[in-house]
Amino acid sequence: MKTETKIEEKKILHIGFEIGLLLKSVFAAFEVLSGILLIFITPERLNQFINILVREELQEDPKDLIAHYLVVFGQSFSVSAQQFGVFYLISHGIIKLVVLFLLWKKKLWAYPLSIAVFLGFIAYQVYRFTFTHSIGLLLLTLLDLVMIWLTIVEYNNAKQESCKT
Fold it and tell me: Based on the structure, what is the number of domains in the chain?
């Protein structure tokens, strides 16, 4: 009975790991695409878009919090912020895609590598959180922590399987 429960638990954790890989892969691909698109979004274009987007809302409610946030964001978006965003999104996405690909291929050495990469991303996300207080960063960090835990479990299972063969 206990071995059946352990087998079921292993299967559930493996499925969770596979779902995590899929979600992280989709998100990483989205980061790369976003970084490429950001190349074409100049501060001027962004401000024009935001103005079109919020114009009617600010006419209806001049104190609209979200509209004001978007206007302030657009005004603070600089060429250097654009360049950093392009570099960060593309490099972050490509690094994740490579690591995730290696995990999909079940390369044993990729498990510790991915844990180190995700820990590095978490460190940076926590650092950025001290400036932004972004709930999105906290959720991303939580997802990375879950992914690290699942990767550790999967790595231990993969090591056991490789010892059996």
Answer: 1
